Amino acid sequence: MGEILYLILIDPFVQMAELPDFFLQVLWEGFVSGILYALIALGFVLIFKASGVFNFAQGIMVVFAALSLVGLYEAGVPAFLALALCVLIMLGLALGVERLVLRPLVNQPDIILFMATIGLTYFLIGLGEFIFGGEPKVMITEELLLPTGSYAWEVMGGLVIFQQIDIAAAVIAVVLMTALGLFFQNTRIGRALRAVADDHQAALSVGISLNQIWAIVWFAAGIVALATGIMWGARSDVSFALQIVALKALPVLVLGGLTSVPGAIVGGLIIGVGEKIGEIYWGSMIGGGIEGWLAYFIALAFLLVRPQGLFGERIIERV
Amino acid sequence: MRLRQALLGAAALAVAAGAPAAPVLADLYVPLLTYRTGAYAGSGIPIADGMHDYLAMLNERDGGIGGVRIAIEECETGYDAQKGVECYESTKGKGALVYNPYSTGITLQLIPKASVDKIPVLSMAYGLSAAAEGETFPWIFNPPDTYWDGASAIIRYIADQEGGLDALKGKKIGYIYLDAGYGREPIPLLEQLAQNYGYELVQYPVPGNQMQNQSSQWLNVRRDRPDYMVMWGWGAMNPTAVKEAAKIRFPMEKFIGVWWAGGDDDARPAGEGAKGYKTLNFHGVGADYGAIQDILEHVVKKGQSKVASPDKVGENLYNRGVMNSVFIAEAIRTAQELTGKKEVDAVDVRRGFENLNITEARLKEIGLEGFMKPLEITCEDHSGHNPVYVQQWNGQRWEPASEWFEPMTDVVRPLLEQAARDYVQANQPWPERAEPCG
After folding, report:
1. What pLDDT is attached to residue A315?
2. At residue B105, what are phi and psi to the nearest 5 degrees?
3. CA–CA separation, A205 vs A199, rounded Å?
4. What pLDDT does B26 receive?
């Protein structure tokens, strides 16, 4: 018993102290994963805030956006033109979803809209495979002028390796999240979005177009998906397996709350760093490979204390 | 009303025209369980193309096998065991001669069904290693090597690099694997060899939903500093692992994958970082073989292949699919010779597999001289435990990095026989072999 307690409570911290450079590396890898989880979660939050719809298709939107980019490039379109066309594709997708999926289902229960996004997921999987095939594709990292080398930082008697693409991913994610935050905080559309999020009926009564807001947030979620697809695609490759990674946003949402942009960011970082530390320092005790469920465990443990999530709104209903 | 009927009639005709033709009874019906979609499509597509194209080439060039055309039907499994079983159930009634599950998970599901439905299962170098024991598993065939052969071959190769089996003592060998039936299959053998030769085995499981998110596993590798890394990866796991290994600056010449971790698209995405990465192989790569040229001539040029571009023909996993279909075709041909019938059934084809003898002369005859080592299957040995070689990625393509060498059959075979007995114990009542040998 004493040995088990030592392995759980003491040994991991001894390891952290013994190899501080390695601990820094773990923190960095967790940070990069976390920031990418936060980006995906942000896509969910934007749509949920505006429409109350939990968009199950956010994961496949990441894959679809990345596949479109690489597919266009492979078809001979220059990289930056392909990127611009991808933005247009995501705009078309947003308009299509608003017109063909959301508008006909307005006033239907939330679960119906949720089911519709599951349908949209399978439609996009089929469409993606039909157009681009099922083969994995290599992200056009260099063509988009993204860096591909690495820096080695000699510190604390060891080495911390930073991949340039990871640094770029972190910078782009922070810039994108800041831009979206400012846009929705300080612009007329942003205020309209928040009004819709607070009360659909009241927003409609003051002349806010629900359809327009929905199209805008789906487009914003599409841009977030494109950025995530480029970054994650550059780290591994672009394949349909990426949508599974995108589901990592679910525990982030449980943790951060479905309606909070800061919650998505902080939740992403907690999950990203938490699962890395958990896997590296505690995972080997139970055979490793715990990362798949550890994120959910962290989120559920948090939920016991704060059912509304870190920054979620506490709903009080009087009966 | 007339217009409606006309439209319905037209729709029915369109559906009928678009539907794949059902095999006529005189055809040799070969269903191919493939996956061109989903997370494992990157590995599944080239194999599916190779399997299909070789059989299609036999149809085009020779009019089939022994003058009887082959009816090829693909069924998409998505590498999912449940879908695989659905494919099996929906096609077995059409006179299927053999099944190729292309998934260890699906193979494990089909093993108990094979002897009941009397249809052989060819799990070429995958599936249950113990199935090589033909007396226990008369309907299952896993040539040219089992996973345990593969694991023992990698350990032998590492020992050769280090100066002999004795030099393995005290070494640390990391094992990164897809945490599924496939990746777990060689663990008992690796653990047994660790006991025999004194190396430390460190395991790094990669859950299926983490295939493209392996930084934790590779951080652990960096911390543990194994002398060698062995990989049992599939689908999107492989290119991600190669990239992550390069990222932590693991010496790539000490990173060795099983034969399923050696697709061109597994190494290529990592660019320069993948140079030096090694995998096992048991067949040639490239298109410089008569049979492969015939595929290009009779199938690809005629637009009958689904291959994305002609330069994909000859890639490693494409040739793996070709080899799979060579086994099917040769088993059918052998069955035709044994029975004297042209239109053989699944029971005959099982006999064909059990009497399969692909000699050097036969390889030359079918345009595959030097493509693989000769293979002989017997009633007792359904694998062959054939020689393998190590190939290495040079940044552009695979090239041989060793001579052909034997797996540790003397160690593996007794363990396989014990594993077969354990399987029978765990799956009572297991049918006694009733099929005659020969």
Report:
1. 65
2. -60, -45
3. 10
4. 58
Residues B237 and B296 both lie in one domain:
no
Which residues of B lie closer than 8 Å to A, measured between beta carbons?
A: 36-42, 44-45, 179, 203-213, 215-217, 219-220, 222-223, 235-236, 239-240, 243, 247-249, 265, 268-269, 271, 308
Structure-model confidence comparison of residues B282 and A151, the more confident one: B282
Query: Domain check: are B170 and B246 in the same one?
Result: yes
How many Cβ atoms are within 10 Å of A208's Cβ, its own excluded?
Answer: 18
Q: Which residues of B touch A291 (CB under 8 A)?
A: 207, 210, 213, 216
Mean pLDDT confidence for B270-291: 94
Whether residues B241 and B328 share a domain: the answer is no
Q: Under CATH, what is the fold of the domain A2-244? A: ABC transporter involved in vitamin B12 uptake, BtuC (1.10.3470)
| Average pLDDT over every residue of B224-232 | 96
The whole-number pLDDT of residue B23 equals 52
- B380 and B256 both lie in a single domain: no
For residue A241, give the nearest of B211, B222, B265 by CB distance: B211
Q: What is the phi/psi pair of residue B102, to 5°?
A: 50, 40
3-state secondary structure of B395: coil
Residue B4: per-residue pLDDT: 46
A282 touches chain B (CB under 8 A): no
Per the CB < 8 A criterion, the answer to whether B331 and B347 are in contact is: no
Q: Coil, strand, or helix at residue A227?
A: helix
CA atoms within 13 A on the CB side of A268: 31
Contacts of B209 in chain A (CB under 8 A): 244-245, 247, 292
- Give me the residues of chain A with pLDDT under 70, please: 312-317, 319
Please work out, in degrees rounded to the nearest 5, the angle formed at the alpha carbon of residue B250 by the alpha carbons of B249 and B254: 150
pLDDT-wise least confident of B209-213, B336-340, B399-403 = B209-213
**CB–CB contact A136 B236 (8 Å):** yes
Name the residue range of residue B36's domain. Answer: 26-145+286-385+417-426
Q: Are A254 and A45 in contact (CB under 8 A)?
A: no
Residue B271: pLDDT band with limits 50, 70, 90: confident
Q: What angle do CA B122, B325, B377 make, to 5 degrees?
A: 50
Would the pLDDT of B52 be above 70? yes
B321 with B257, same domain: the answer is no
Instruction: Give B10's pLDDT tier (boundaries 50, 70, 90).
Output: very low
B38 contacts in chain A (CB < 8 Å): 134, 240-241
Q: How close B98 comes to chain A (CA, Å)?
A: 26
A135 touching B (Cβ < 8 Å): yes
- B206 strand-pairing partners: B178
pLDDT tens digits for range B150-187: 999 999 999 999 999 999 999 999 999 999 889 999 99
Dist. CA B306–CA B293, nearest whole Å: 16
What gap in Å lies between CA A26 and CA B215, rounded to an integer?
9
What angle (nearest 5°) sits at the alpha carbon of residue B174, between those of residues B173 and B178? 140
Q: Are residues B99 and B138 in the same domain?
A: yes
Q: What is the pLDDT of residues B85-133, one digit of tens each?
A: 999 999 999 999 999 999 989 999 999 999 899 999 999 999 999 999 9
A26 to chain B: closest CA residue:
B219
N-terminal to C-terminal alpha carbon distance within chain B: 64
